[in-house]
Predict the structure.
Amino acid sequence: MNFFFDAWGWLSLVEIVGRTTTIEPPAHGERVAGQPYPNWTGVEWVLVAYSEPPEPDTRPAQRAALLVQLDAIDTATDKPRTRRELLLGKQATLTWLAAQDAEADALRAELSRLDQG
């Protein structure tokens, strides 16, 4: 029988291609944060306090989508803009996004410190 594990090693009840083993996991309860749950180490299952995997960082995709939208706006405007004007507009947008990322990272770090202590 095959047993499956996700990208973080947690036992999965859903078939995941390329993430299988024939080694049976130890007896365990439900998948509940903080409770022991099987985690695949690459050679064996171990019971570890379960924690939700982190959310994927979608900022790069959001940046790319925003830049595509800016290009569409630039091509739809009546007033022709120089390449320099276009690049300055994009630079301003990316600078703003970087500031938002830094603020979000600072908030995440502070929440993490508060959660720990």
